[in-house]
Amino acid sequence: MPASNAITILDALIIGSGFSGIYLLHKLRDELKLDAKIFEAESDIGGTWNNNRYPGARVDCPVPLYAYSSPKVWESWTWTELYPSQKEIKAYFDHVDGVWEIRKDCVFNSRVNEATFDECVARWTIRTTDGKVTMAKYLLVAVGFASKSYLPEWEGLDLFEGVVYHSAHWPKDAEVDVKGKKIAVIGTGSTGVQIFQEWAKVADEATIFQRTPNLCLPMRQEKLDADQQVKEKVDYVDYLAQCATTFAGLEYQVTPTNTFDAGEEEREAFWESLYQSGGFRFWQNNYQDFISNLEANQAAYSFWARKTRARIQDPKKQDLLAPLVPPHPFGAKRPSLEQDFYEQFNKPNVHIVDTESNPIVDVTPTGIATTDGKVHEVDIIAVATGFDAVTGGLLSLGLKDVNGVGLDERWKDGMSTYLGMAVSGFPNMFLPYSLQAPTAFANGPTLIELQGDWIASIITKMEKENIRSVTATPDAASAWNNEVNTIANMTLLPLAKSWYMGSNIPGKPVQSLNYVGGLPTYRERCAKALDEDFFGFAKA
Ligand code: N01
């Protein structure tokens, strides 16, 4: 790096070293031979898998799908579980670094707080909180969907005398020993479920604070055999390519018939097979009208509730965890995968507090106070209240358009992109794994590679044709925005309050943050921009 007051000049600056930032560095540096670097706010690579190290953290897409498709990476790597833990994924990133030499081009502890584009020189100027200035032709914002945590405004958290951590800020080296302790987990998203499933096995008393039930599906975890993986690798290239053609980049597709086309017995048998196979099949392999027809969705919900209630002994806990009336359409809020979450509630020392009926008021020095006047005394609290998902991280970077207007200001009443990767007024800036793309509805690495390849292609084309800058046109952004919202409105997604719609954050504009048209259509739309001479972009 240059002296502290010098300006660093790059071809491409990538913000973030998670799955997408690493892929982009590899593509741009190793294939396009650009001078590219990653700025990473944390002290190591891994993105969400570096930050989210709370107890029980693990992925809920199976390997080898949840990994890069490059043979160079997978031929020398062996997984131990079908759904690996955070620790194993972190080790996988070390392996990726060994293959692609990522860390050598990462600048760690480097937090971007301003970026402006100068049209005269067609360069971004990027500033970091340590005062460094960098100029780059291309700016790749790869901060992921979960880089800004959300903590409700509860008084007293700082006065709590026990141990309290937000799941996204778990201490690096401190193991939190819950043996002999009273623990509380606030929140029942994927994170809360994973922490509680671990802690409830060990703690003296375990209480989960639930506002909305999570409609969890059985993970059906498997230990993986190393020799078996060697044999299966012969087919990896074809297998991964085939999965990339599906709606969500998974091994299975939505079933192309409607729920009530099947008789009751056939439906039950079908749902039973999905439920028994595990993973997200009950969600993503279900009948095609599952996510668009409320009656169909409710029928599937009833099946799920019967299966889940049968695993819980106490009728009061049954009614809270798997009520007879659906709390929201299945899949309109993200379901999680669990291993033995529901069985924990059959123990006398495992409790549930309904914060829908009795919201949390504040945290006292000894526990959590709810509106019914109770203080739930605990020693340790895990706050699993999620994220200002998808856009929170992006909007905290101080990105400004060509007129100097901040992206946060531009989007205060609603967000709009072209293909989920470009924003009008922000030339040469591309956003992998961000809003208005299939982000939450696709296997992460599959989408990241699709978008990373597309970004690499558009940059290659620009370089070849001596184009200084491209920016999404307002018309293209408006058309994409319409497509994103029209498709979302054909589904049941708007009926739930969830981070999918931005409605988990008070005051955030409510709109679909994801493109729910599936990977194949998304791929076509992206290809058109390349095939039809930068369709949707203005060139300079
Ligand atoms: O966050 P969430 P998350 N009072 O927003 C509750 C991915 N992920 O960190 O549902 C009381 O889902 C809130 O209640 P409600 C995955 O995509 C993946 O769990 O709004 N409760 C909810 O229960 C996931 O979807 C894995 O009523 C309050 C919880 O906090 C995404 O990250 C693992 C509250 C927040 O749940 C986010 O998951 C972990 C309040 N004031 C995460 N405010 C994998 O397995 C919020 N809550 C890959």
TrEMBL record:
<keyword id="KW-0503">Monooxygenase</keyword>
<dbReference type="InterPro" id="IPR050775">
    <property type="entry name" value="FAD-binding_Monooxygenases"/>
</dbReference>
<protein>
    <recommendedName>
        <fullName>FAD/NAD(P)-binding domain-containing protein</fullName>
    </recommendedName>
</protein>
<keyword id="KW-0521">NADP</keyword>
<dbReference type="GO" id="GO:0004497">
    <property type="term" value="F:monooxygenase activity"/>
</dbReference>
<dbReference type="Pfam" id="PF07992">
    <property type="entry name" value="Pyr_redox_2"/>
</dbReference>
<keyword id="KW-0560">Oxidoreductase</keyword>
<feature type="domain" description="FAD/NAD(P)-binding">
    <location>
        <begin position="11"/>
        <end position="224"/>
    </location>
</feature>
<comment type="similarity">
    <text>Belongs to the FAD-binding monooxygenase family.</text>
</comment>
<dbReference type="InterPro" id="IPR023753">
    <property type="entry name" value="FAD/NAD-binding_dom"/>
</dbReference>
<dbReference type="InterPro" id="IPR036188">
    <property type="entry name" value="FAD/NAD-bd_sf"/>
</dbReference>
<keyword id="KW-0274">FAD</keyword>
<keyword id="KW-0285">Flavoprotein</keyword>
